[in-house]
Amino acid sequence: MGKRREGREAAIQFLFARDMQGSEKPAEPEVFWTLHSAKASTRAFAESLINGVLQHQPDIDARIAELLQNFRMERLAAVDRNVLRVATYELLHCPDVPAPVILNEAIDIAKALSAGESGSFVNGVLDKLARTLRNNEPKRPVETLSED
Fold this sequence. Notes:
148 residues, N-utilizing Substance Protein B Homolog, Chain A, single chain, globular
């Protein structure tokens, strides 16, 4: 597994834990990294995603909520909610990462960390979002989508 995948998974796990606790405690990031060992480059990537999501969370949540049909953000499974947050942050603020890579990573992580139809659900929401945010992005052949 590459450092970016590991970083995305760590970011989602951190945000999930934060979601479950209701608020961040001052020592929380250090406690998380004590329990979740990672290489410095993986940790740096994860922290950039975490900080980006937290900084832009109201906008991210609003964009996701617009796409949910007959559902509210609070009713989403916490893992799915945070997979969507990280991927939405990347779609909005990481133009150097191709949309298909973001979607594939989010779908794979949702399948690995969540249950049931999470991969399909995440795919449906992010596909709609990517079409609105990255519609003019050039399409790349699937074999060139590897990041690591």
